[in-house]
Amino acid sequence: IVRSNPKVSGYNLTSMTDSWGAGEGVMSNFRKFKAGHLAALQAGWAPLRWCLLVNPTNVYADKPLHVRVAIANEDRLPPGSYPATLRISGAQGVVWTSSVTVRVQDGPDAPLAYPLLDEDVTIPGLTEWAYTLGAKLETVANAAADSVSFTVTDGAHFPGNLGDSTVLGLNKDAQDFLTSRGARLHDYAEGQRIDREIILVGDTYSDQAKAWRAL
User: Fold this and answer.
1) For the whole model, what pTM was predicted?
2) 127: pLDDT strictly greater than 80
3) Sign of the CA dihedral with 191 first, then 192, 195, and 198 last
């Protein structure tokens, strides 16, 4: 998100190592990179990198997904036009493609990133699986961070009848959704005994330590 902004120059990392017992660094107190941190930094700060976003990252098969693509360039690509291909693929192969062109500008105030796509995409026939949005420059070496994964969920696999469920501090929208899925809801009463039943607690039931202990 930070690197895809044409006017934002970067991100400041304040702690290289852990200190005073706080786990805030990308390295441990023994100067060892924590799992995955080095790769994340290399991809995040690569001079030429794709910025790929799929929203939401868990998509329903019959709903559109929002795809946003940009490429961040710190003087690695000289001014010019560069064709690129965007693809969404899953177990059944490529299910969506789009051709875009990166037009790198010249001058002392050239953008730090170039937005290429920002739109809703509807892909019929998606199945419940993990998918990947990928990007590739066609005429030059590809940029870093060239793929991002997301998950597709098929609503047809939802249970048709959720049965009895106890709710506590759940807002009306959430309750209406559960009811539409066949749930029979009743409010939790402090001290009641519940055996083998779902208990759903909402955000409004926070900062109530005594009640939580009872629950």
Assistant:
1) 0.77
2) yes
3) negative
